[in-house]
Design a protein that fits this description.
Layout: E1 4-8, H1 13-24, E2 28-35, H2 53-66, E3 70-74, H3 76-92, H4 99-118, E4 123-125, E5 130-133, E6 136-139, H5 148-151, H6 156-159, E7 162-163, H7 171-180, H8 202-210, E8 215-218, E9 224-228, E10 255-260, E11 265-269, E12 276-281, E13 285-286, E14 295-298, E15 305-313, E16 316-325, E17 333-338, E18 341-351
Parallel strand pairs: 1-2, 1-4, 2-3, 4-7, 8-11
Antiparallel strand pairs: 5-6, 8-9, 10-11, 12-16, 12-18, 13-18, 14-15, 14-17, 15-16, 17-18
Helix pairs in contact: 1-2, 1-7, 3-4
Length: 352
């Protein structure tokens, strides 16, 4: 017997093909587009995310071609609270959040899944490039598009009601299939960057909400080498846009090493000073097999993978890397793998 499946349709090619595959497999599928912006008409055509009026229309057209019912759910208020306000608060606290990860956790697999289950659906399907192998989250076969990292925060229960139909296909195969199915989004560009910052100007977006406050940029010795108009405009590992008045004596570029929001101070230094081998995280979410040997960890979406050892300590995790990593920012997620299988995740609090 087929499942009752709610297919989240963003208006892009991935979610359209995912919905089509689920329907073709004999399941009872209903498409839903999430209205995440309170004023979507204000988003320009060609915006960088997936929150425009055009996207909702593309999703509806895809549902018509597939032959499934289609609805739009207004999630703007929840998205504003759980994703946008969280994003601003994290930067204000000197951390670097991942809003796509938070959207998966709080919107697609909390608010949407909860409503879907209450309405009698068995599962939610999305166009993420990831696999579920016997209910366990694993990487996509297309490593260049793998999105298991941003799904690593999901619980076992949430994964038990999730479907990721694209995990065994490459992006090129998905586009070819969309064209064969007559889906007009076959050649639609991928969304990128942060969907609620249409012009990609994160610093400007934060300045409008947090204001400006001049503060010092200091080197590792505490000497003032420049100034800024808000520590929230920086992230660990950043090189560009630092506005340093006094170049380093060796002429080499400087990078953001740390951010102190209370004193509004940004500390910079050489790239070598960014290297860390020990990472401390908050409480973990264990969603895969209980394996603690031959582990790897990914510290950013599409970032490098590092061999590691993991210890549980004081309710959180300590991760020891087998080689130095750079640009490790508090607020980001550390997602742990054994091979291509996710075993869990935790939020980075600090590194050394």
């Amino acid at each position: 017997m087929g499942l009752r499946v709610l297919a989240a349709m963003s208006g892009g090619v991935d979610s359209a093909v995912a919905a089509a595959r689920i329907a073709e497999a004999g399941h009872d599928v209903t498409g839903v587009h999430l209205a995440l912006s309170a004023n979507p008409q204000s988003h320009r055509t060609g915006a960088r995310g997936c929150c425009t009026v055009e996207d909702s229309r593309d999703a509806r057209r895809a549902a018509d071609v597939i032959g499934i019912p289609f609805y739009i759910w207004d999630m703007a208020e929840r998205f504003q609270r759980d994703v946008v306000e969280d994003f601003v608060a994290e930067y204000a606290a000197g951390r670097t959040p991942n809003p796509c990860l938070r959207c998966n956790e709080k919107i697609k697999f909390a608010a949407v899944l909860d409503r879907a289950l209450a309405l009698g659906f068995d599962a939610v399907a999305t166009g993420h490039h990831a696999r579920l192998v016997d209910g366990v989250l694993s990487r996509s076969v297309d490593m260049g598009k793998d999105q298991s990292y941003v799904l690593g925060v999901l619980t076992r229960e949430q994964l038990g009601h999730a479907l990721f139909p694209l995990g065994d296909s490459t992006k090129a195969q998905v586009r070819e299939e969309a064209a064969r199915r007559g889906l007009t989004v076959a050649d639609k560009p991928d969304s990128h960057d942060i969907c609620f910052i249409a012009d990609g100007d994160t610093r400007g977006f934060l300045a409008k909400r947090l204001g400006s406050a001049e503060g010092p940029i200091v080197d590792q010795a505490g000497e003032v080498v420049g100034s800024h108009r808000g520590a929230h405009g920086f992230t660990v590992g950043q090189r560009k846009g630092l506005h340093i008045d006094r170049p380093a004596a060796d002429g080499r570029p400087r990078y953001v090493l740390s951010i102190e929001p209370v004193s509004n101070t940004v500390t910079v230094g050489p790239r070598a000073a960014l290297e860390v081998t020990s990472i401390v995280c908050g409480p973990p979410v264990w969603n895969g097999p209980s394996v603690f040997d031959d582990l790897t960890v990914q510290l950013r979406a599409h970032g490098e993978v590092y061999g590691c050892r993991v210890e549980e300590s004081d309710g959180g995790l300590r991760i020891e890397l087998d080689r130095p990593a750079t640009g490790v920012a508090p607020g980001q997620a550390a997602v742990l793998y054994t091979g291509s299988t996710v075993i869990g995740s935790a939020t980075i609090t600090h590194a050394a």
